[in-house]
Amino acid sequence: MKTLNAYGDKIKSDWNHTMTLDLVKECNLIKKLKEKYPLTWRIGGLGNENTIIADEFHINSQLTTILSLIGKEFRNKTILDLGCGSNGDSFDNKISLKTRSFEPWLCRALYELNIKCMGIDCGDLDNEKFEHCGYFNLLGPDSLGFLQDSSVDVAHARLLYSSPQLEKLNRGNSKSLHEYLLPQLERIVKPEGFFVYTPNT
Questions:
Q1: What is the largest CA-CA distance in the chain?
Q2: Model pLDDT for residues 41-52, shown as the tens digit of each residue
């Protein structure tokens, strides 16, 4: 398994962001998401004060990261999204907006693209169509024990290490979340697979 920092490590691939946008357009992905999860969307900028938002740019960027790793045969791959996001509104202190950006948009997008995925989060994932484990605590030596060896092509963790919920759960613990996860990921991710994450910022 190769570990990649999504912010710092370059991914060598034949896949690029333009190809993602073409796929998204071909599959009417954003239109489907808007119809199934009606809310105020944005392409860029901060939006208006107190606006509930979802960000098309970040969905496409995360898709590009995943597709760059698994290539054109993406429908034969399995993605695990750790800290995928959960249902319901939340508040982003950085931009002072009530937001739905922290819902499981990547897993929803992968599901609509018929890419096998599983989302895991400590929050509510009830009624989501993709395979999921909600109200799930990753802080344990065998928290991913239910997953088979070498069953995952890409494990993805965006903002997992800066999750305030997991930080509270791990308070007073001598082991970090990364120390719990890494040995398990080395077991469940295929030897030629990837763990891609964003650092705690």
A1: 49
A2: 655 544 444 455
